[in-house]
Every structure is written in C-alpha cells, then in structure tokens.
Amino acid sequence: MRWVNPWSLRGPAFLAFWLAGAVAALAVTLAVRHLLAGRRAPPDELDRLRARLHATDLAHLAHGVGRAIEAAVAGLVHRGSLTIEGGALRATERVPATSRDYVERSRVDPTYAPAEHYVLDKVRNDRVDRVARLVANAGALDQQLIKRRRGDGLCSQPSARHVWLYSPGVAWIGVGVAKVVVGLARGRPVGLLVVVLVVAGLGLRRIAPRRLTARGAQLLRAVQRGAHGLAATARTAPQQLSSTEHALAYALFGIAAPALASVLHAPGVVHVHAAPGLAGYSADDGCSSGDDCASGCAAGDASCGSGAASCGGCSP
Amino acid sequence: MTLPSGVGLGWRPETAWLIDSRPGLAFSEVVAEAIDPRRPPPALAAAIERGLVVATHGVGLSLGGATLPAPARIRRLAAVARTLRSPVVSEHVAFARAGGTELGHFLPVAFTRGQLAVLIDHVRRVMDALPVPLALENIAAPLTWPGDQLAEADFLAELLDRTGAGLLLDVANLHANLLNHGGDAAQTLARLPLDRVAYLHVAGGARIAALWRDTHAHPIVEPVFDLLRAVLARTGPRPILLERDHAFGRRAELEAELDHLATVLAAAPAATVAPPRGRFVALPVDDQVVRAHLAGLQAALARSVVDPTVPPPAGVSPPHLAEARAILGAKRARR
To answer: Which of A131-135, A245-249, B259-263 is most confident?
Structure first.
C-alpha cells in the first residue's frame, strides 16, 4: 500500500480524505462518550439507589432544578404544607431558618427532601410566593443536588470528561486547519475547506457530554418504566395518590392536579382536567357489565418525553 | 395456564397504579373493547411485562343475540387475548343488540330451550376462534322474560356442559337477581355449575328506586360477602376479581375491599361440592325457525327499552322495563 502525504493532496481529494477521517473521529467521540458514562449498576444496587431518592430528586435528575421545585410544590400542596391563595404560595408550617445547605438539612430532618426544604424555607422565611421566583433563585440548591448526585454516581464528573470527549474531534479539525495554512502558503483556494471546518466545529460543540452516568440513565429508565401506571392514575383518579406519588407523577411526567393550575405553568405540564385520552384505551368501551357503568373516564397516560440522555439535573 | 387463585382488581387507568403497587395482587382483568390490540396502553403493557396476569373480558359479542356474533368482533377479542397473554377470555350470557338497535348494555336472554340452542351454537363458534378457554358470565338482569322453560342456574349448567365453557360467576349479579326477581340463594347455588368456575366477580351496588343495581361504583355490601362465602364453601378457593368502574374514591377504600375479599378467600374450605349433571333433554333442531322467533322477541324488547312509546313484548313487567330504561338512559347520558 502506498503512503499518501495528505499535505500534498489537491483540494477535492483532501476534502474526501478529511471527511472520511471526520466520520472516524465522530465514531471515536461517541465511543468515548459511552465509555465515560461508566458501567451499569446491578439490580440490587439500582434498588438501593432508588430507595434513597425522593420524587423531587428524580425530577432534578430527569429535568433539572426547575422541575424538582415544581414537583416539591405539587407534593407539599397535596400534603397541606403549602396552600395556594390567589396564585401565591403560603406555608402553613413554621420552618426554622437554619442551614441553607438543603441536602444537609434533609439529612438532619428527613421529613422533607432537599427541594422541599428549599421551597418551604423560601416561602416561609424569605416570602417568595411565586414558583417562577423559586426556580430563578435555585442556583445554590441546583449545585447541592448535583454534588449529591455525583456522589451517588448518577451524574457525570465534567472536568475529566470534556478533555477526552472532544480530543478526537479537536485533533482532526486541527489537521484541517493545518491544511488551510499550507494551502494559503501555497496560494491555493481554501474557502470550501474553511466552511467545512467551521461546520465541523459547530457540530462538535453540539455533541453534548452525557449528563447522566450509565447507572443514572439506567435508574431513570427503570423508574419511568415502572411508573406508567402512576401516570395513568394521576390523570384519571388523582385522589388515589399520596403526596409523594403526586410529586413523582409531576416529577416524571409533568402531570399536575387542577388545583396547581394557577401556579405551575412550565412547558409540557399536563393538568389532569385537560388530559388527552389514554393511548390504546377507549374509555367509552372501558366498562364491564355494571348497571351504572358508562365510564366517565377522562383517561390519560403520559408518554414519557424525558429521555434519560436529556437529563438537565446534572448540568454543571 | 389458568388465573392464579387470589384476589384481583379490574384494570382501568384509574386503578393502574394500585394494581402496580399493591403487593400480592393475584391478577387483573381488562375490558377487551377498550383496548387496541396493536397498541395497548403503556401502563397495561408494562404491568404485563412485569408479570401481571390479565383476563380478557368481552362486552361486545352479544352471544345471546339471534344472529351470529360478528366475526370481526371475535377476531378482535382473540387478538386482545393474545396481546395481553390472557389465560382466559370471558363474555356475557346476554344480548346487547337486536333488530338493528345497539343497546350499549346487556339485556337478559330468555331461559328457553330455543335460546339455549342458539347460545350453544354461538359459544362453540367463539370458542373455536379463541386462543384460550372461554368463561361465561351471568348478568344482573333488569327484567325477566315471560315463559322461561328453565331456571337460570339450570340454563347455565346445560350451556356450560354442552359447550365446555367455564363459568365466570358474578356474585354481585347473582345477589341483584335474587333481590330483584326472587329466588332462594342456597337452591340456586346447589344447581349452578360451580365446578366450572374459572373466576368470580364481586362488585358494589346500591338500591336505586325499586330495584338493586349492580353499579360497580359503591362499596360491596355485606349480603354479597355472605353470598361469596356460600359460593366458596362449595367451590373451594377460586380467583376473585373486584370490579370498580367509577367513583373510585381514595385508594384506602379500594384496598380495604381487597383486604376484606382476601380474608374471605383465605377462610374458604378446600373441599368442593359437585353439582348435579346429565338430565338434559333434546334441543330444538330447526335453527331458522328458532332464530326468527328469537329475533322478533329481542327486537321488540330492544325497541321498547330505547323508545318508551313502543310497547314491550307481552308479559314483560312494566316496573322492570322501566328499570332497564333507566339503566340504559343513565349510561347514554354518561357517554
């Protein structure tokens, strides 16, 4: 096989050579991303991890701190710890203004999850009465939760990750840039190559590192798989659910009770009074032979749009 | 494969989470006509994937009608059973359409030998097309036909014996019929083909106007528990399904009913009592004449139920007809 010096290749030939290499670099990048996500957890460890996470923790893991706070509000309203008066939140319990490390506070007082401690603290002690403001001021809580999830091995560590993830792509773009320099020195046209390199650079930026580790994604998938029934019941008979289950239904599927319509307005939120029909289930035919049975079933089942890879909760 | 002995709960979106999260729930049942066999609800599919056993419950075949059940309906029922991996399919001994009138609810068949012959033909055809055994359910009859030749228990015994179908005994329906139309519970149980019980239905009801209604929306009353105990004393432990179709209330209320049923089931003796057999006489052979006669009667009743200006067939009790109209009216109002 004859060795080809890439610097001596003419424009179209180099472009073909470079694009072939770019495909290989992309494959390596994706493989590195997969490797950096770590190993999956055995089932017993998954169960142990799941047992430690509150619904609001899962909301944070799946959708970020905003969803965690909203899920906390949904659960606390159902529990009676918060009330809604004219669209404003009111705390019904006295909350000590102690540590603002809400993860630590939850460890000391496990009555509430970290996001719930945050919401109660802000509403009661700082007079924050709007969900939007709770979310806007939640940077510290977000960092605390991310740190905790990294400790659990559910969120990736960003520092080591970026170097290895982007190295193949950066190196190959570097080869292209070198060819541009060579081309300019030789007075050759390099416009097309520059355009290709710019597009490649922008594309590389779009390859987001995985926020969740493999076990984090695995945990979320398992929880979502096991909660389809929760989604169906949350939409059709929310009175069947406990406050934790309300929070979980909101955390995973964005399903909120009608009472929360005035405070939760996040995109994708489904209030049960407006729930669409349940996929694959016809409420009109859903009755058995009961005399009064005609089914007023406003059924609905959430199709989970929260892919594990879109985890917002581990964003640094 | 059969249904596991234990207590189950009917699957609906409203009960899906309870079914998913209640430890020890033995099985479930889903109304076949509510399910798209190519795309079952994710919650149901996931529960089956996790090992939930689900009976397929048909409400649309109109087995007791004068005309053959529509092949497309039978195929759909079979497809749902395959999708849900059901060990058993159940349907009702009743008709739900006649003379072009869709009732949207069940009316009772006449307990005559002609009706029996037609039902046997229909049941055999359906059984041939299903991938799993068929169980037939007794309904809560809002009215009775004049000129019955058989008691319901004897009618069911002969139907099951001649077809090989199983029995889905709805204890709440039996209770309603005994209350509304009279009869002795012990004598009825002694004649029912209880050795063929595939599973049992239990549901709540209430007295509305003059009659007891099997509402599937109220708590189970103590006389139904008593009747269930009497059934189990003869059958031994059998799978029991709690039916609830609306007014679901809080989870604790449903859980309490399931717990109560589990207690009743746990107290059931192991011994079973064999019912009487082999005293059947010949059935009518002129199928066309029988069907034409039946079609005329059922169409007349169906028309009078949906249209109060149409007089009922001779001998049908006006209060009972009014009850049938009220039930149907309530159902149509809900839709």
So the answer is: B259-263
Higher per-residue pLDDT: B322 or A315:
B322
The closest alpha carbon to A266, from A112, A136, A106, A174, belongs to A136
Superfamily (CATH) of domain B7-334:
Divalent-metal-dependent TIM barrel enzymes (3.20.20.150)
Torsion angle of C-alpha atoms B125, B131, B136, B137, degrees rounded to 10: -130
Q: Select the more confidently predicted residue: A111 or A311.
A: A111
Q: Using CB atoms, pick whichever of B36, B42, B142 lies closest to residue A228.
A: B42
DSSP of A29-82, one letter per residue?
HHHHHHHHT-PPPPHHHHHHHHHH--HHHHHHHHH-HHHHHHHHHHHHHHHTSE
Domain that includes residue A26, residue range: 10-38+157-206
B243 reaches A (C-beta below 8 A): yes
Whether the Cβ atoms of residue A287 and residue B327 lie closer than 8 Å to each other: no
pTM value? 0.81
**Counted domains in chain A:** 2
Cross-chain residue pair B214–A291, CB shorter than 8 Å: yes
Task: Compare all CA atoms of chain A with the CA of B90 and give the residue at the minimum distance.
Answer: A288
Per residue in B226-281, pLDDT (tens digit) is 999 999 999 999 999 999 998 898 999 999 999 999 999 999 998 777 766 666 77
Residue A14 has pLDDT above 80, yes or no: yes
Percentage of chain B modeled with pLDDT above 90: 75
- Dump pLDDT digits (tens) for B72-99: 999 999 999 999 999 999 999 999 999 8
Q: Which residues pair with B134 in a beta bridge?
A: B89
Nearest alpha carbon to residue B181 among B320, B312, B302:
B320
Q: Is residue A238 domain-shared with residue A288, that is, in the same domain?
A: yes
First to last CA, chain A: 48
Q: Which two tokens stand for residue B137?
A: 């359910």
